[in-house]
Amino acid sequence: MRIGIVGVGLIGGSLGRALRVLGRSIQVVGMTRTADAAEQARAAGAVDEASTDASILDRADIVVIATPIADIPDVLDRIGHLVNRGAVITDVASVKRPVREWVRRIPEPGLFLGGHPVAGKAQSGVAASDPGLFKDAPWIFTPLEFQTLRPFEPWVELVTAIGARPRFLSPEEHDQQIAYLSHLAFTISSVYAETVTSNADPTLGGTGYRGMTRLAEGDPAMYESIALENHDALLRAIDQFALTLQRFRDRIERQDAVRELFHVAGHAAL
Which three-class secondary structure string do you get for the chain? Predict the structure, then answer.
């Protein structure tokens, strides 16, 4: 089986390395933006072959788009014709509703299955890739309404084989859930980092400070794209967080069963 990966960064590189560990006569090829990126992908062991030329994907059975979300429309314009040759296409973007609209660019939208591995690191790039990144992580698929999943069964099996846990949601449900579970998290981390920097000495911070600011160290361009594409759901999550934070503030101000307040929150996180 030949797997093509478009964009061999942290997620694409980790995926390539995980697939290559499986063996199973799997060949992984990568399409990159630059020749240097192609060489880095090969050196990291993420791919067997890499090129800036889209023709490297011509014989792929499955193509995974692992670029920043803003690049997906252009990528679909370049590779959408591959479905005419029997390939299926998927992606790893963390916002799914716009992807559902963009997939109309390809000749047979039913041969595209939206996907999102809920895994990552603050670091970016293929140098930070890890073949164990997806172990025990949810991998959410967002099929189109009435879409048959039969052509994607080999891909779902591979996702399971690299240790991920497949889940199936509609694009709308995915985006609402991930706004709270992921997109709100890096927003809060950024707000916390800015608040501390403006009011305290970060060099005095310990593990709690470093844990809270870890996500704020991520790629701001990626966060911007996500915030724009999942705008409404993220705003709802921020508003709900602000209400909850205000409730905590009010209880602390009144010294009203503060221990219980934190006890309940701590158990809710388990």
Answer: CEEEEECCCHHHHHHHHHHHHHCCCCEEEEECCCHHHHHHHHHCCCCCEEECCHHHHCCCCEEEECCCHHHHHHHHHHHHHHHHHCCEEEECCCCCHHHHHHHHHCCCHHHEEEEEECCCCCCCCHHHCCCCCCCCCEEEEECCCCCCCHHHHHHHHHHHHCCCEEEECCHHHHHHHHHHHHHHHHHHHHHHHHHHHHHCCHHHCCHHHHHHHCHHHCCHHHHHHHHHHCHHHHHHHHHHHHHHHHHHHHHHHHCCCHHHHHHHHHHHCC
